[in-house]
Amino acid sequence: MSSPSSHDPDSPEDSGDAFGGNSGPPIGIILGIVALSVVLFFAVTLPKCSSDTEAPTAMATPADQSSTASAPDGTPKTTARQVPTPVDTSPAPSQPEGYSDPLKLLSAFSSRITQGNLGGALDLVDASALRDHGGARLRALFNEGKYKIAEENPITEIGDIDDRTRFAIKVVRQEQDGLSADETKVLFDMVLETGGTWSVDKVHVPTFTALAPGTAAAATGAIASLPDSVRSQGASEGIMVVRGDAAAGETTDPLQLAHAFVTAVTNLDFEKARSLLDLDKVTEEKLTGLLIVSEEAKMEMREKQPLIATATKDDRAWIIAQLEAKSGPSVFGLELSKDPKNPGNWKIAGLNFSKLIADQAAASGADAVTYTPLMETPQGGDSLVLYFEYDVGELHLRARRQLEIIAKIMRGDPTKKIHINGHADAMGTENYNIALSDTRAAEVKRGLIDAGVRPDQIVTTSFGESRPLSPNVNPDGSDNPIGRKRNRRAEVYLDF
Questions:
Q1: Is-contact 201 237, C-beta < 8 A?
Q2: What's this model's pTM, rounded to 2 decimal places?
Q3: For residue 120, what is the domain's CATH number?
Q4: 99 strand-pairing partners
Q5: What one-character DSSP code corresponds to residue 421?
Q6: What phi, psi does 386 have (nearest 5°)?
Q7: For all residues of the chain together, what is the average pLDDT?
Q8: Are 110 and 222 contained in the same domain?
Q9: Dihedral sign, Cα of residue 202, residue 203, residue 205, residue 210
């Protein structure tokens, strides 16, 4: 009998082969390892795979719920559901959206205002563009001010200055809650970024009235956040005057002034246009001449690039006004300078509308000389001029339309005076020409009276052939019909 520690290689029970072979470990050990692997797979790996595939459901399921998995023997086994780390759903800091078209950006701004989403509208504007309390003024405009985006054509292009393009959004208010009806514009200066997208560089909010804090409608308190420098108490209780850019101490710029002036001209608003002139440099006669041409041409500003600043300096600027007239496109020039009486603002210091006149003359088939409604007089200054046919004292249709513009200006202020000088060419005797020039001056006076001007506002004088604008004869003594055509006229001087 062998000892316990001895080993008999021929002993069947020590063989690793079920059939008595000796090539490896006993089969029982192998089966045990396989069974253990299966148990480990179902106990560890399968629950993890189940948890991964059900992750979206787990995000919406309470963490204390559980799922089941089968044990190797087929009996249900409960395992805890693995819940992913919660995702931060709080809104990211607001960043202006990118727009390759400035009109689309402003349309989105307008749409959000109309939907009552003022915060979303302001998100489209860089914070730097709302500097100088622009954001608070906008909130006051639409909340306490009760303004809404205009329904028809709310967005218009103003023009280009330096590297910016200016647009306006028209806002309107119905009479309500003690606030008067009103219509005004918010200006947006846009810049094209290097990436091809547009952004708002500056917002100009106009002066407006609004409900003061403490009234029922003033829930946001936007006015209360404004400093005293941009708000003041109005005459009516509960009404605040929220002062816009210029009124709040900010300077206007040439583009603002030019747009206001051209708008007044195309609307034939003499008083508004006159208020924007430097009257030491631009005469009222010249302004009236521009209004006459505007009325005849039916001028309107172009939709695209209506104004272009060709040059700007600290105290001077030159701007081209691009227009659409019934005869086609045309332009006129404006020179602007800082107002010497108020250095924070600008004035119109020069007008050049000779091309506008020439375009209208060419379109109407009229002679450019006799079409001109304005001239520089030999005595200096400007005068309005109405031309007459040869040996005729009656006004033609075009001259009557010109008088309608002059009469409209005169009717607004009965203290204004107008001087009319009649002239004739050198054909005929001196006495005959004095009588003819007197007839022409009287005809102009009659036309103004018929248009509503009081007789005591009109002064007439007759000069006959004594003050020609051009020679009646050529140097060789022959007749000069072009010169004589210029001399058959009545000059109109405004005495304001």
A1: no
A2: 0.70
A3: 3.10.450.100
A4: 198
A5: E
A6: -120, 130
A7: 80
A8: yes
A9: negative
